[in-house]
Specification:
The complex is a heterotrimer. By secondary structure, chain A is mainly alpha-helical. Chain A is built from 18 helices and 2 strands. The radius of gyration of chain A is 24 Å and the shape is globular. The N terminus and C terminus of chain A are likely disordered. Chain B is of the alpha+beta class. Helix content of chain B is 42%, strand content 23%. In chain B, the strands form 2 sheets. In chain B, strands 3-2-1-5-8 form a 5-stranded mixed β-sheet. In chain B, strand 1 and strand 2 form a beta hairpin. By secondary structure, chain C is mainly α. Chain C contains 12 helices and 2 strands; from the N terminus they run αααβαααααααβαα. In chain C, helix 1 runs antiparallel to helix 11, helix 1 runs parallel beside helix 12 and helix 5 runs antiparallel to helix 6. Chain C is elongated. Chain C starts with 20 loop residues before the first helix and ends with a helix. The chains are: A mainly alpha, B alpha+beta, C mainly alpha. At the A-B interface, helix 4, strand 1, helix 12, helix 13 and helix 14 of A face helix 1, helix 2, helix 3, strand 7 and strand 9 of B. Bound molecules: heme-A (2 copies), dinuclear copper ion and copper (II) ion (CU).
Chain lengths: 593, 257, 349
């Protein structure tokens, strides 16, 4: 009476789609959460490439200002013979950030992994609202078109930074309008996604899957969805206001008697700082939206390959909640020197200090998890561990900036750039790589090449530190961000060699991704086939066929315990799937492959 | 091979610390501080650097050690089947809380000095950011701004008296800018429609960079100015001279009108 | 190729709440909506209380009765949709449809009234659109220039007519009079000695003639106006504040046009509706921005509701449709609630 049938079935799954409808309905306008998840994955990975190339252009300018850029130069729209013009540079980092945040990290976490994993991990056959789910993907397309097209309109793409502070963003050319439209559409997409996820997690958990038996991934996705649902509408509202300031001559963010291109603006009396408040009210929670799911997935991976229960499950859950809660009251730490009332600054500082606490708890619990385990250094595990290692760096640098007097000096310097690349790239992106290697078998029924995976990890790990760690030092010198050519300042002239080193690391890092690229596509078609549970993991998705057919489960999953019972004395296997009935039926435990 | 990976992770704290040790020798460190309060900020930075440095080495060290000790090949004994420890959780909740609260309170004074305790004195100069330059308006001999004898400079060469408190009124005439003096550890965004103050005391004479630290358009990178700190007499002499130049100009203009 | 994997089992779940997925989703959706309007209303409050001057409701043609009426209409519609639900529960499809129809109708009334209000604003040029916007923050030279331009346009439009009707002649007379008695004095004053406050006062005089501000109580008709006093006032308070103190000048302005009582109804733009001169309303630009933002987004939500109601008219609303009616009802109550916040914010304070 094992709840898991033997495996031969699983390979039927991919073909099985064919029975359900034409290619178009199956793979393009699919309402199946797995396909939608994969659609998100591929789209975001491709944009990841774009964002990476934009980053290289940025790096090139910083290493060899105004010099002709080798290959990329030809792609530069408004650049003169491969050379980057100042306005092009502002456009480059603006779009780099926009792409990375709104088209890569957020959609790859919530869109790709959220979609693929939530129903599988809670034992549902699909999302609560498959059509809404499909829409949330298809709303990304007009957004991507808006962002993409903006490169080709007069004046080029948005160039006021990803924060797009008015009044500058109000004077910017066409691209900015498209940027705002794109932003709104991304918002609509995320909003649809988040309400759908929340409903699914609240209403569609398998029997026995209590809230405190959910894997951390699901908890993270759940809290993230809450953040999305509550913070995003405010940004959308702000976006509309900036749009109407640009198009309909309203004056929300336009100060009294403000002159733009020598014409005094009649509609006045607005407040530029108001935008910053509204923007960061969303965008600070957004930075946690950009890391919580990674934290969740990393927790699962670490527990699985330490072959040991997650250390302090409940504290982990509560600290995710704590991060989310505090996340709503710290936005002002981006505005310490913006002219905001210094007293406010002080209160935001205290809140910001406190938000380090839940992250601290998580970090220590991850360490506690690998303590006394039997660690298997698989590729996913290496990426997951590097997430912890790198997140510590990125997090600790946050403390410097949270200290208001220090922030006076390091605000808008490369110290900030170092900080958020450690949390976003070295943290989240590495976690995402880990997740890709980890769930690839479930997605495609095949495994990625481990050796090349490790090579990919090693090189990325080394080069990313080479790229980003020196930024802390640059920040200490006061090296300002968003500057096309900082070297004509006497203070920063001597920093060029270091920047050239960083640039070469960046180039090599992007080149390294070729390994991943090849490994990824090769394995989809030729990777070694695997059974349901190649990693001997516990959570529900591993009980379903790989890849799961339409409807996910070919049996009714019933949950008996939490997802982290690795090395439990109750059973002789060193893992103990959530669906496996207690000892009575232990001997008939599913033999993954 | 297992050892290999833990060693790779050991590189992080080792090289991390090394970078900060080596950097100063190549002058990749704070720019020279010529202000009075700057010291406080640098000290606070160094204090946090030490504190986080310890946390950094400790946590990364632990990560390395566990990877080294507990990898599947070398770790013979069975896994510790533990779901966590209440006491540990309490400990590592309280310790950081205390540390963080300490940092929070410890720094408040420095912040108040820099941004809240504005000295009540007359404005030394009014500085207006515009794409892409810093314009200055000095009160003339009468020390009063907005009087006929004010001196205007548009060449981005700002002169200020050294060894005495200076109170600046900074504004913007178009978009956001940020008035950043690396050598004085001072930075303040300027917002159109708002007036900001900045005050400091330069300890040394000399010429230093003024950086615009808030994106303000394509020319943001070249919105550069220089500040010259000089002794009171020199400063007054210079101001005098600038005033005369200005007068000369206006007189020259008279007939043409 | 497994046979039974074609028919995945019907999975069962343990929902955390005893409600349908649809309802759960709707509640979540509404909470995002709440945050959305929180953002908008927050903006309104911040901007309004941060503003130096803010027009009184009457200055911008907001009438409480109309607003109150609309509030009443929406509340009724909330009731009627509840009644529709009740009917559906009792499986009285036609009755339910009747109530939905009523709700639909009331919603239309609300939008109709709103549309009427919008038109009233547009007629007086009360909309943001810059630079064609008619609202000016202060009576400065830009304002004078705008008026001159408008007058010239009018003239250019009437003069060429042959033969001119008596009406045209009269219009030209008014135009001449305005530029002679109000505009020119102000402009010349400004040209001759820009430093003296005199021209500003003359500008205000012009502004108030075109669009007199509202006063709580009927203001007495002042006698000939005296620069000394007002100069004092001018130096005392910034312009837009003065704007609300210079009753005497308004009167004087009206005087100049032989029109003997003050108050809004008799501003030039009202007496001669064809004039459409730019108006001076301190804080007017920001007011227009926020007013149209808030009411606009609310109207859009009403519209969405109406579309759904309309579609529902083609569904037999028996017991099976309870869920549908209940959900749209929830949404409609929310829309209603938002308005109950907006009405006092925009019309009363
Ligand atoms: C995933 C994204 C992410 C994450 C998780 C964080 C996490 C944190 N961030 Fe970050 N931040 C960004 C993304 C992120 N940030 C981005 C993108 C910007 C720039 C936006 C822009 O301007 O373009 C930014 C900017 C930014 C600023 C503004 C700087 C400026 O512009 O002047 C500040 C200031 O306080 C800040 C603080 C913090 C803090 C305190 C945390 C904390 O949550 C960190 C907590 C974690 C730790 C502290 C490490 C682990 C803990 C331990 C090892 C325990 C022991 C530690 C102690 C006792 C200290 N961040
Ligand atoms: C998630 C967010 C994210 C990520 C991942 C990155 C990644 C990188 N960033 Fe980015 N960056 C930001 C967010 C991010 N950045 C933000 C928010 C800003 C601020 C902008 C502003 O000031 O407004 C910024 C600004 C910024 C600057 C400062 C510009 C300035 O202020 O003047 C620099 C400079 O070095 C930089 C560099 C890089 C580099 C070298 C990378 C590299 O890590 C990139 C490496 C790229 C890859 C590794 C891609 C590889 C591709 C794949 C793996 C896909 C494979 C494809 C398939 C399988 C189909 N970034
Ligand atoms: Cu001015 Cu940047
Ligand atoms: Cu933040």
């Amino acid at each position: 009476m094992s709840s898991i049938p033997v495996d031969s079935h699983s390979y039927a799954a991919p073909l099985e789609h064919a029975h359900h409808g034409s290619f178009l309905t199956t793979y393009v306008f699919s309402r199946d959460h797995k396909i939608i998840g994969l659609q998100f994955l591929f789209t975001t990975l491709l944009w990841f490439l774009v964002g990476g190339l934009l980053a290289l252009a940025v790096r090139w300018q910083l290493a060899y200002p105004w010099s002709e850029m080798p290959i990329l130069g030809r792609l530069m729209p408004s650049s003169l013979g491969g050379q980057i013009a100042p306005e092009t540079y502002t456009m480059l980092f603006t779009m780099h950030a926009t792409v990375m945040i709104f088209l890569v990290i957020i959609p790859i976490l919530a869109g790709a992994f959220g979609n693929f994993l939530i129903p599988l991990m809670i034992g549902a056959d699909d999302m609560a609202f498959p059509t809404l789910n499909m829409l949330s993907y298809w709303f990304m397309w007009p957004a991507m078109l808006a962002f993409g097209a903006s490169f080709f309109v007069a004046g080029g793409a948005a160039s006021s930074g990803w924060t797009s502070y008015p009044p500058l963003s109000l004077t910017a050319l066409g691209g900015q309008t498209l940027w705002l439209i794109g932003l709104t559409l991304v918002g609509v997409s995320s909003m649809m996604g988040s309400v759908n996820y929340l409903t699914t997690i609240i209403m569609m958990r398998a029997p026995g899957m209590t809230m405190f038996r959910l894997p951390m991934t699901i908890w993270a996705m759940f809290i993230t969805a809450v953040l999305q649902a509550f913070a995003l509408p405010v940004l959308t509202a702000a976006g509309f206001m900036q749009l109407s300031d640009r198009l309909f001559g309203t004056g929300f963010f336009i100060p009294e008697g403000w002159t733009a291109n020598n014409a005094v603006h009649a509609a006045g009396g607005g407040q530029p700082l108001l935008w910053q408040h509204l923007f960061w009210f969303y965008s600070h929670p957004a930075v946690y939206i950009m890391i919580l799911p990674a934290m969740g997935m990393v927790s699962d991976i670490i527990a699985c390959f330490a072959r040991k229960p997650l250390f302090g499950y409940k504290p982990m859950v509560y600290s995710i909640g704590g991060i989310a809660g505090l996340g709503f009251i710290v936005w002002g730490h981006h505005m310490f020197v913006s002219g905001m009332n210094p007293i406010l600054g002080m209160t935001f500082m205290v809140a910001t200090m406190m938000i380090a606490l839940p992250s601290a708890i998580k970090t220590f619990n991850w360490l506690g998890t690998i303590w006394g385990g039997k660690i298997q250094f698989t590729t996913p595990m290496l990426f997951a561990l590097s997430f912890v290692s790198m997140f510590i760096i990125g997090g600790l640098s946050g403390i410097f900036m949270a200290a208001t007097p220090v922030d006076i000096f390091i605000h808008d310097t490369y110290f900030i750039v170092a900080h958020f690349h450690y949390v976003l790239f070295a943290g989240t992106a590495m976690g995402v790589f880990g997740a890709i290697y980890f769930w690839f078998p479930k997605m495609f029924g095949r495994q990625m090449n481990e050796t090349w995976g490790k090579v990919h990890f090693l090189l990325t790990f080394l080069f990313l530190n080479g790229t980003f760690f020196p930024m802390h030092i640059l920040g200490m010198v006061g090296f300002p961000r968003r500057l096309a050519d900082p070297y004509h300042y006497e203070t920063f002239r001597h920093l060029m060699p270091l920047n050239q080193f960083m640039t070469w690391c960046a180039i090599l890092m992007v080149a390294t991704q070729l390994i991943f690229f090849v490994n990824f596509f090769y394995s989809i078609f030729f990777g070694p086939k695997v059974g349901r549970n190649p990693w001997h993991a516990n959570s529900l998705e591993w009980m379903a066929p790989s890849p799961p057919g339409h409807g996910n489960f070919d049996f009714q999953p019933i949950v008996y315990r939490g997802p982290y019972e690795y090395g439990s004395p109750e059973v002789d296997t060193d893992y103990y799937p959530q669906t496996q009935p207690p000892p009575a039926g232990a001997q008939s435990a599913p033999t993954g492959h | 091979m297992n050892r290999f990976w833990s060693l790779i992770f050991l590189l992080v704290p080792v090289l991390g610390v090394a970078t900060f040790v080596v950097a100063p020798y190549y002058h990749h460190w704070f720019p020279r501080d010529v202000s009075e309060h700057g010291r406080v900020i640098d000290q606070l930075f160094m204090f946090i650097l030490w504190l986080t440095g310890i946390v950094f080495v400790a946590t990364e060290g632990a990560l390395f050690y566990f990877m080294w000790k507990y990898n599947a090949r070398n770790n013979r004994e069975p896994v510790k089947f533990s779901h966590g420890s209440h006491t540990l959780e309490v400990v590592w909740t309280i310790l950081p809380t205390v540390t963080l609260l300490f940092i929070a309170i410890y720094q408040m004074n420095a912040w108040a000095d820099a941004k809240m305790r504005r000295p009540d004195m007359s404005i030394t100069a009014e500085i207006t950011g515009r794409q892409f330059n810093w314009d200055v308006r000095y009160p003339g001999k009468d020390g009063e701004l907005y009087t006929p004898d004010d001196v205007f400079r548009y060449d981005g060469q700002i002169h200020l008296p050294a060894n005495e408190e200076v109170l600046l009124l900074i504004k913007s005439s178009d978009v956001l800018h940020s008035f950043f003096l690396p050598n004085l550890r001072m930075k303040q965004d300027v917002v159109p429609g708002m007036a900001q103050n900045m005050w400091f005391k330069a300890k040394e004479t000399g010429e230093f960079d003024i950086v615009c630290a808030e994106l303000c358009g394509w020319g943001h990178y070249k919105m550069k100015a220089r500040v010259t700190f000089e002794s009171r007499p020199d400063y007054e002499a210079w101001l005098e001279q600038m005033y005369d130049q200005q007068e000369a100009k206006t007189v020259a203009l008279q007939p043409s009108e | 190729m497994s046979e039974h994997s074609h028919h995945p089992p019907m999975l069962q779940y343990q929902p955390a709440l005893p409600i349908s997925n649809g309802k759960a989703c709707l509640w979540l959706f509404l909470s995002t909506e709440i945050m959305f309007f929180a953002g908008l209303i927050g903006t309104y409050i911040v901007l309004r209380f941060g503003a130096v001057a803010w027009p009184k409701p009457h200055d911008v043609h907001l009438s409480e009765p109309i607003g109150a009426f609309n509030t009443f209409v929406l509340i009724c519609s909330s009731v009627s949709i509840v009644l529709a639900l009740e009917a559906a529960k009792r499986n009285r499809a036609s009755e339910a449809k009747g109530w939905v129809l009523v709700t639909f109708f009331l919603g239309c009334v609300f939008l109709g009234v709103k549309g009427y209000e919008y038109l009233a604003k547009f007629d007086h040029g009360l909309y943001p659109q810059n630079p064609h916007g008619q609202i000016h923050e202060k009576a400065d030279l830009n304002y004078a220039a705008a008026i001159r331009k408008r007058l010239l346009d009018l003239r250019a439009e009437i003069e060429p007519k042959t033969p001119r009707t008596a009406e045209d002649e009269q219009k030209l007379a008014v135009i001449d009079q305005i530029s002679r008695d109000l505009l020119e004095p102000a402009e010349t004053a400004a040209r001759e000695n820009p430093d003296s406050p005199e021209w500003r006062i003359l500008m205000l005089r012009l502004a108030f003639a075109i669009y007199p501000p509202q006063y709580e109580e009927e203001s007495p008709v002042g006698e000939a106006f005296d620069i000394g006093a007002s100069t004092a006032q001018l130096q005392a308070a910034p312009l837009h504040l003065v704007a609300f103190q210079q009753n005497d000048q308004t009167a004087a302005a009206d005087h100049a046009l032989g029109d003997h009582d003050s108050g809004h109804a008799h501003g030039l733009n009202d007496v001669h509706s064809w004039l459409r001169l730019p108006v001076m309303i301190p804080g007017g630009g920001l007011w227009a921005s926020t007013y149209f933002l808030l009411t606009g987004f609310h109207a859009i939500h009403v519209l969405v509701g109406l579309i759904v109601f309309f579609l529902m008219l083609f569904v037999t609303l028996n017991r099976t449709q309870i869920g549908l009616i209940e959900n749209i009802g929830l949404y409609w109550h929310f829309v209603d609630l938002v308005w109950i916040f907006l009405f006092p914010l925009l019309y009363l304070f």
